Amino acid sequence: MSDEPLTLTAYDLWKCYGDRPVVEGINFTLHPGEIVGLLGPNGAGKTTTVGMLYGLVIPTRGFVQFGPWQIPAQGKQARAQMGIVTQEDNLDPDFTVFENLSHFAHHYHITGVKARDRAGELLSLVKLQDKAQAQVDQLSGGMKRRLVLARALINRPKIVFLDEPTTGLDPDARQEFWRMVTQLKAEGCGVLLTTHYMDEAQRLCDRLFLMQQGKVIDEGTPAVLIERVIGEEVAEIEGVAVEKLQALSQSFAVWGRQFGNGYLLALPRDNPEALWHQIETLHAPRLTRRRANLEDVFLRLTGNLLG
Amino acid sequence: MKSLSITPWGVYSVWWRHFQVYRSTWLVNFLPPVSEPIIYLLAFGFGLTPLIGEVTYGSTTLSYSQFIAPGMIGIGVLFQSFFEGAYSTFIRLNFQKTWQALLTAPLSFSEVFVGDWLWATTKGTIAGILTGLVAVVAQLYAIQHLLLALPIIVLGSLLFGAFGLLVAGMVRKIDQVNVPIFLIIIPMFTLCGTYFPRTTLPQALEVIANLLPLAALVDLLRWPLGLPNGWLLPLVWLIAWMCLFVWLAAKRIYPLLFR
C-alpha cells in the first residue's frame, strides 16, 4: 500500500454559501508525478477547491476520491498520504524550527529517534539545517514557506497541495521553492498548485485549469492553451489611436484588446509578418513583439488580468 | 457534522503537542497561575481566621481556614481550566492557527477538539491537586480525602474547560473574553460557597449561586464535611453542565474551521 502511487479525482465539486455558489462543478484528476495548476485571480475559488480536496471545506455537492478514500468522509485517513501547504503560515511559534517538524511527526505516529531523523532530513532538503534551533519568527518569508513545505512532507506524501505557495516571496526565494516542487514531481509525487502568477504556472505545471468566479473556463497544457487561445506571438503597441488598431484587428480577424496605456494585438499564426508590417507603418512610440503567454490567455478569456 | 472519527492516538497526539509547549515554558506557565488559589488560601486562611474564628457548615463547626480550603481547590480548577480553554484556545484558533495546522495532519475535528479540551482539563486538574496538597500540608484537608476528591477535580476541570472552549468559540476579539469573566466567572468565584457558606446570602442571590456549577463542585469537594443535598444531585448537575458546554462549544467551533 505505502509504495503504491495514488490518483486523486474530483467529481463535480460544488460549494455554495447560502444561495451564492463559489465553486461550480469542478472535475479533474491529479496523477502521480504530475503538476496540475489552478490558475485564477483572487476570489476565483482556488482555495475553496483545495479545501474540498483535503476535507476542510465540505462540498455542497460532489466528492473527491483519493486512492481508496472518499473525501470528506474519510478525509482523516486520506490526509495521512497528503502534504498540505496552506496559504497562510500556520507554523507553531511555540516551537523551534526543528521541533516544528519533529513534533508534527507525532501526529503521523512517527516518534522519538525516527521523528528526529526525519526532521533532520527534511531540514537538509529545504536547506534550513543551520536554522534548526531558531525560533519561527526569526525566519524570513521564504524560509517559513520552505519550513511549511518540509512539514507537509513529513510522512512522504503521495500528493502535495500548494496553495499560493510563493505569494509575497522575492524572486530568489520563488526560484528556490520551484526547484523543490520540481524535485517532488521527479520523485513521483502528484502536486496541485494554485497560483495567480502566470510565470509560475507556465514554468511548473503540466496541466492547467483556468478558474474564474468559481468555474473552470478552460484547461490544457500551458503551451496548448496559449496556442489555442492566442496564437504564437503578440504585439504590444503604445501611443497609437485605438480605432486604428481595432480596425487592424478586424481586418486580420485576430484578437486585440486595450490594455493599460497600450493595446495588445495577436499576430496571425499563418502570416504574422503581414500584420506586423502594417503595425510598423503606424510608427508607434513604443512597440514590442513577443511570444504569447498565459497572461494574454487569461485576458482574452476573462477580460481581466490575473494579479 | 462530519469528521467525527476519533481515536485515542489522535486525541493524545493533540494533547501531547500542548504538553510539549507547556514543558518548554513551564516556569512561566505553571507557577504564577497555580500560585493564585494557594495565595488566597494562605492569605485568607491566615488573615481572616483570627477575625472570623469558626464557621458552621451544615451541622459541622470548623475553622475558617478549613472551610475555605476546598473552595480554593475549586477556584484553582475553575481558573486554570477556564483560562486555558478560553484564552489559549482562542489564540490557537485565531492567531497561531494551530487548529488549522493540525487539521492538515491525519487528525479529525473531534480529535483536535477533545485534545484541546483534555489539555484544559489537565491544567485545571494540576491546579486543583497542587492547591489540595498545600491544604494537606497545612492540615486543612486530609490526604485520603484529596485522593477521593480526584474524580471531582477532574470533572470540574472538564466542565470549566468546556466552558472555556465555548467562550473561545463565541468571541470574535480576545478582549471579549472579559465579558464572561466579569459576568459569570467572578460571581461564581466569590458567591458559590468558596469564601463563605451560601446560606448567608439573601435568598434570591442564594438561589442563583446554588444554580451556578461552581457551587455543586465546591459542595462535592467539601464532602468530608457532609453534603447538604446528597451527592447524586450535584454530581448529575455538574455532568449536565459539562455536556451542555461541550456540545455548545463543538457546535460553535466546528463552523469556524469547516466552511
Q: How far apart lie the N and C ends of chain A?
A: 41 Å
- Measured as a percent range, the helix fraction of chain A is 25-40%
Could you say which structural class the secondary elements and strand pairing of chain A correspond to? alpha/beta
Number of helices of chain A: 11
CATH uppermost class of the largest domain in chain A: Alpha Beta
Radius of gyration based on Cα positions of chain B: 19 Å
Kindly state the percentage of residues in helix of chain B: over 70%
Q: Write out the strand line-up for the largest beta sheet of chain A, numbering strands in chain order.
A: 6-7-8-3-9-10
Largest sheet of chain B: 2 strands, antiparallel
What is the number of E strands of chain A?
A: 14
| Radius of gyration over C-alpha positions of chain A, nearest whole angstrom | 22 Å
- Model regions low in confidence, pLDDT < 50 over at least 5 residues of chain B: none
